[in-house]
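Troubleshooting log. The previous structure file for this entry was overwritten by mistake, so regenerating from the original sequence record. Sequence copied from the archived sheet and checked twice against the printout by T.R.
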Amino acid sequence: MSGYDYLRDPAAIEAASFAAIDAAVALTGWEPGMARVARRLVHACGDPAVVERLTWVHDPVTAGRQALGRGAAVLCDVEMVRHGLSRRFLAGNPLLCHLHDPGVAESARARGWTRSMTAVDQWETQGAVVVVGNAPTALFRLLERLQAGAAKPALVIAMPVGFIGAAESKEAALEYARDSGLPLIALRGRVGGSALACAALNAIARMAAGVAE
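Regenerated output below.
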C-alpha cells in the first residue's frame, strides 16, 4: 500500500463529489430534472462552467423519462456513446449505433459524407431517444431528415464536440426544436463529447428508473 491519503470508498467519493458540485454550482430555481442533468454534467467533466452552456426546450426530462419508460430505442452517433450508457438503468431499451452496419462505409465514401452522417439514414426515429456526442454531421443530417418528413424522436441530446460544425449544428438544432416542439438538450458552443452526452442521458435514465440522486 502507498502512503497517499485519498478516498477509497465509492459511496464516500460520490457523496463528496456531489457536495463539492453543489457548493460550486448554484442550481436553486432550476427545474429539478434539469438540475440533476446539470449536476451529472459537472460530475462528468469536473468543470462547473459547463452549466453555463446548458440549454433545453420543451421539457426534455419528462419526454425522455416517458420514452425510456416505454422501451424506446436509443440512437447513438458513435460507439463511444453507446458503450458509455448505463445498461443498469437502460436494460429495457435497445442501444443502437449503425456506424458499422454493412454498406455504411462504402456509401459514405461514394457520397463524400462522414460515416456518422451516413449512419443516420439507418435510424428509425419515431419515438426514439437520440444521443449525439461526437459528430456535428450526424446532427445536421438528423435535422435534414426531420425537415424532409422523418418521424420525430421523443428527445434529442445534442452535444457534438469540435471546432468545425459543432456550435453551428447545435444552434440549428435549437432553432428547429423551438419551432417544431421537439424536446432537446444541448451544450452550446464547441464543448461537448461522448462522456457529457452519456452523462445527460444516464441522469434521465436514473430518473426514469426511480433512482434517487
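The first strand starts at residue 54 and ends at 57. Archived copy saved in two places this time.
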